Amino acid sequence: MVHRVVFLGPPGAGKGTQAARIARELGVPHLSTGDILRAAVAAKTPLGLAAEGHMRSGGLVPDDLVLKILHERLDQPDAKVGYLLDGFPRNLAQAEALGNFSSVERVVSLEISPDLLVDRLSQRRVCPKCQSVYNLSTQPPKLPGKCDLDGADLVHRPDDRPEAIMTRLKVYAEQTAPLLDYYRKRHLLRAVDATGTPDEVATRVRKALA
Ligand code: AP5
Ligand code: MG
């Protein structure tokens, strides 16, 4: 079983949905740079203040900030057994930096047609407290507007508005998609069809990690 894993995929492909359950199964922490940055924005820390505008518009947060959070997070004791990275790396510089301090064992690329993404993202709601992900049409909460796990009010991410979604898709195509070739050349990449139900996708992901 692999323990140092990266999930790649465009916005809305289901990285967070799959990472939450697969990380539990692998016994490694689920590390989402997006979740860490959103927590910093909510807490109004200096990092959050520096990141907020980039995130709201759908652009990338500067590499030096993101690399600092990643180093700090991977230094924590729970990450000694491994990690499942969701949303990192996002460009070649980040991939090179990751390779300099850890050897990734497997990269799973969640593949989906762009047409399905806008719908998934505009229907998404998230719990600001525990980061659980819902979808108004496919995975609604039991009580409207409330997290099933902790009852917190669900929110619509500011970058799930149409303009920011378009920017995120463009940034993915230009800056992140080249990582597919980068990891393919290193024989680490496994492509997974990310359409179908979350259970169906999880079955494919498990096969890609076996
Ligand atoms: P981040 O939080 O990483 O966002 P993202 O990559 O755009 O991906 P999403 O979280 O939107 O989608 P997802 O693939 O996790 O899908 P989900 O499972 O939620 O980054 C946000 C921002 O932070 C960036 O734009 C950037 O500014 C900054 N940032 C983060 N990392 C950075 C880095 N390394 N460098 C620089 N900047 C960085 O699913 C989406 C919806 O679909 C949900 O509603 C879900 O319920 C539904 N769904 C999931 N699976 C299925 C399915 N199989 N069938 C039907 N519906 C499904
Ligand atoms: Mg996510």
What do these coordinates show?
The protein is globular. The longest helix is centred in the last third of the chain and has 15 residues, at 162-176. It is an alpha/beta fold. A hairpin with a 6-residue loop joins strand 5 (124-126) and strand 6 (133-135). The strands form 2 sheets. The chain has a 5-stranded parallel beta sheet with strand order 2-3-1-4-7, with helices on both faces. The chain has a two-stranded antiparallel ribbon with strand order 5-6. The mean pLDDT is 96. 48% of the residues lie in helices and 14% in strands. BIS(adenosine)-5'-pentaphosphate binds at residues 9, 11-17, 32-34, 37, 54-55, 58-61, 66, 87-88, 90, 94, 120, 123-124, 133-135, 138-139, 159, 168, 196-198, 201.
In short:
With 210 residues, the protein is of the alpha/beta class. It is built from nine helices and seven strands, in the order E-H-E-H-H-H-E-H-E-H-E-E-H-H-E-H.
